[in-house]
Design brief:
single chain, alpha+beta, OB fold (Dihydrolipoamide Acetyltransferase, E2P), 3 domains, six-stranded mixed sheet, five-stranded mixed sheet, 13 strands
Length: 255
């Protein structure tokens, strides 16, 4: 009874129907909103309809017409400044854009790793997984960049060290907790030893890729696609296909 009395005070209850096992409370939709709230909804609807009409019928070069529309007061947001209305209009225009028109090809997802305190980005499409290195079996009569073989869930994975190729530094030994990235390029699968894995899903805007700064002369530029900023530090984007197919990593000799 208290609930019914409280609901009746705000005039949204039209009545009550009693059944043997149930009680139905009849609602009054006309009382859901006050008059001022209904006016705001109508004002917003009319504003959006006028915006859609203008988008189809007004030349974009006629900016004075758009600004005059923005200056018109609306019950929905009567105190908005011209700048605020411009921002709201830009957001509304952006939300009206179909998803198919958005350029997702201008972005690439990278894994961010370190080698000797240098940041490198690797295209995530070529990364199969991230693993910790445990027992490694050396391979006789192989170049220094071939560290050895590792058993990865029954698959024999060859581990390589890119420091000599990218940084002109001697390979470093395997220590406890060392990590590797399993990379697959055109059917070639290998594990690349890394120092640290900083990020596994870094979204790179390709428009922000820049040429490698000339002040950095320790990086072998021919195996990099460019550079970008990662946490305000320079990160080099590796050309993985070129490294694997033209960098001399593949040993195709019979001894």
């Amino acid at each position: 009874e208290l609930l019914v009395e409280q609901q009746a005070n705000i005039n949204i209850i039209a009545g009550i129907v009693n059944f043997p096992d149930d009680i139905f409370i009849l609602n009054e939709p006309k009382q859901w909103l006050e008059d001022s709230e209904i006016k705001q909804v109508i004002s917003l609807s009319n504003y959006l309809q006028k915006e859609n009409y203008d988008n189809y019928n007004v030349d974009e070069t006629q900016t004075h017409d758009s600004e005059s529309l923005l200056l018109q007061k609306s019950i929905f947001y009567p105190n908005a400044t011209l700048e605020a209305r411009k921002v709201l209009k830009q957001r509304a225009d952006h939300l009206r854009l179909p998803t198919k028109n958005q350029d997702f090809h201008s972005f690439k997802t990278l894994a961010v790793i370190t080698l000797n305190d240098h940041l490198f980005g690797i295209d995530l499409e070529m990364v199969r997984e991230f693993v910790e290195i445990h027992q490694v079996t050396p391979i006789p009569c192989c170049p220094a960049h071939i560290i050895g073989n590792m058993n990865l869930r029954g698959e024999i994975l060859t581990l390589v060290d890119l420091r000599g190729l990218l940084l002109n530094l001697p390979p470093q030994g395997i220590v406890f907790g060392s990590k590797a990235i399993v990379i697959e390029v055109e059917g070639i699968v290998a594990g690349v030893i890394v120092g640290e894995i900083y990020d596994v899903m870094f979204s790179l805007n390709l428009q922000k890729v820049m040429a490698i700064p000339k002040t950095i002369n320790t990086i072998n530029e021919q195996y990099c696609q460019g550079a970008t900023l990662y946490n305000e530090k320079t990160m080099h984007i590796l050309d993985i296909p070129k490294i694997f197919l033209q960098g001399g990593l593949i040993v195709d000799e019979v001894i």
